[in-house]
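ok here's DUF2264 domain-containing protein:
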Amino acid sequence: MHMQLPPEDRTLSPITGWTRAHWEATADTLLARVVPYAAPDFAQFRLPGRASQAGVISDGLEGFARTFLLAAFRIAGADGAGMEDLLDRYRRGLVAGTDPHHPYAWPALRDMAQPLVEAASIAVALHETRPWIFDRLGQDERERVVGWLAGFVGRRTPDSNWVLFQVIVEQFLATVGGPHDPAEIEGGLERIERWYAGDGWYSDGAGQNFDHYCGWAMHLYPALWARMAGDTARAERYAERLRLFLAQYQLLFAADGAPMHQGRSLTYRFATAAPLWLGALTGGTPLPPGVTRRLASGNLRHFVDRGAPDHRGLLPLGWHGAFRPIAQAYSGPASPYWASKGFLGLLLPADHPVWTATERPAPIDERNFTAALPAPGWLVHGTRADGIVRLVNHGSDRAARQPADSGPDPNYTHLAYSTHSGPVLDTSSFDSQLVVIGPDGRRYQRRRIQRLHISDQVAVSRWADGLVRVETASVVDGPFEVRVHLLDAPAGSVVREAGHALAGASPPQLMPGGVARTDGLTSSLRSLHGFTGTGLVRATDANAFGAHAATPLLHAQHPGGTAMYVSLVGLTGAPAAEPVLVGVEGFTATIRLAGGAAITVRPGGPLQ
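and the structure:
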């Protein structure tokens, strides 16, 4: 291990072994290892790697802002004690960055520009460290900091989580007597009400944009705003929504701490722990303190044990290790440091129950489970024997955010995701979806999801693309998913069904009905009705979980008109009994679950 960490404490933390001391040591390493990349006077941190679309100056500001957020949690959590180096470093950076004559001065805040994002991190950090940094700046220095942040007033942002950056920055300005527009603060808070989908879930803007931004942005910033503003009425509303969210969110972590690998900005890694800590910070959690820490510490340790931070002590763009394809166009070398949000728990004092309670098991530690999450349109099923959680997607597509001339986003439109697998990120990607190749060679696939039904073990949705219409019912049972497709397509079309892409350091090996890694993790796919052939697609350097990926396939020649196809999809690390197709009658399929119960489905029609 490249970090010096305290010994495990299996008395206080019998599941992860990690305590607050491990969090502090990890934070200290992350903060120390970026210092060699600091510009003069710490105004920017220019980390190694390819620049984002915003350019190197904005990227350097990002390096300052996102590490300042981590430093702020560390400083405030220690009540400033022993934090002299951090305090000096970031105070100097603030003074230099807001000096327009400094060679590494920060760019002015402009409409729709990346520095608006970074201004919000700086505002949060300034609020949390106010007694040690902002209040100790000279009058001229404070005015320069306020003046730079005040550039946000009147700015336009994308109609998404970005509206909350304006809320945060202007609320901080209000607390220090700076320029701000109360109507913009109120407008941003009201805007997210339109995106609230119930059960604690927000879409990130209009449409079906459900992903980790719900936790690390849509819940986080309103709660931090209430912390700044002292608005108890809204704080209670946000806490109640967070409570509902966490009751479901806790199901999305594997036994080894891995978060669900779905959605964009996955390079933020353990930022996925932020809403867990936020629940403890605000009182908006249904989780006992020992469960909160077990999930959060498991999450951080998952990445630390697998190479993040890397041998340099840096967080590269990637998942476990460096993996550039996971990045978006807006991702720069310092973007992964939004992971700093995962250290929010350091704001809680060392004697808080979330740090002193004995760890308690998470749901995946104790039982198999299936759960319907109606707001995002997901079925979640986890298995205790292998610790894997899988997500069946019948509701999140981000179609409203995708350019009309682009392909569907593999992080949103696939049928299945999991804590142990991820999509192949190249143009040949077929994994976890049904694709139709028309007689003309055109590829038809799911882009916009129309929801039809969701219950504890069954979800149904519909999609259309050109001449192709598909209705799909998913039935989950243990580690398996039965997919029942009712497909209408031109004669001569080729139907291709794909299972989970399995990836690792070495090529997964072909086995009957699927592929397997050397550690026993298996991706299986079997035809139950309609498919006539099998196949395998391999990819190199295109999957976040390893250099070598393999995806099992099924295929069939479509006769034209409407036909039914049924498959059995598995992602397993331990043996399990399979559900069985009892029969197909017309466009109705009956499945017998491993426990003996039978479920009859007709995609797009009533369920029995």
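+1. The longest helix spans residues 56-77.
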